Amino acid sequence: QVQLVESGGGLVQAGGSLRLSCAASGSIFSIKAMDWYRQAPGKQRELVAAGPSGGRTDYADSVKGRFTIARDNAKNTVYLQMNSLKPEDTAVYYCYADLYQEGSRFSRGYWGQGTQVTVSS
Predict the structure, then answer these.
(1) Which of 54, 85, 93, 111 could serve as a FRET partner for 11 with CA atoms 20 to 30 Å apart?
(2) Separation CA 34–CA 77 (nearest Å)
(3) Residue 51: per-residue pLDDT
(4) How many CB atoms lie within 10 A of CB 43?
């Protein structure tokens, strides 16, 4: 069994900062990727930040220069530092991990339960 648990969401004023965390636990052999997605009301879920993988990170154009993704492999944890937040960043933020469970030949994806981020104007 694998679990992804996010934390760090909340209410912040425009221009403020938040740091999200997502910790993976359970029978994990190795993690290929850990990414952050978000879903605003009435909109599709979108990729916010991916990686780092092979030293490379990718960001949605709307968050470039403001958000930073980082990963602690020893803790199976990924972080999302969000600065200069805007009201349009309001959404539920989800962690996604593509990983190998112990004893499995194939990787599969897992989602966290989501954490609400609300940015007031």
Answers:
(1) 111
(2) 8
(3) 82
(4) 9
Tokens of 102: 């112990």
* Mean pLDDT, contiguous 10-residue spans, the chain (121 residues): 95 98 95 96 96 83 97 95 98 97 94 97 94
Closest CA to 97 of 20, 5, 7: 5
Contact 52, 94 (CB under 8 A): no
Query: Would you put residue 48 in left (φ > 0), alpha (ψ -120 to 50) or beta?
Result: alpha
- What are the phi and psi torsion angles at 62 (to 5°)? -70, -15
Please list, in sequence order, all residues whose beta carbon lies within 8 angstroms of the beta carbon of residue 32, skipping any fewer than 6 positions away.
Answer: 53, 98, 99, 100, 107
28, amino acid identity: I
Q: Structure tokens of 50?
A: 């991916």
- Residue 24 is predicted with a pLDDT of 97
Contact 38, 57 (CB under 8 A): no
Query: Which residue bears the tokens 């004893």?
Result: 103
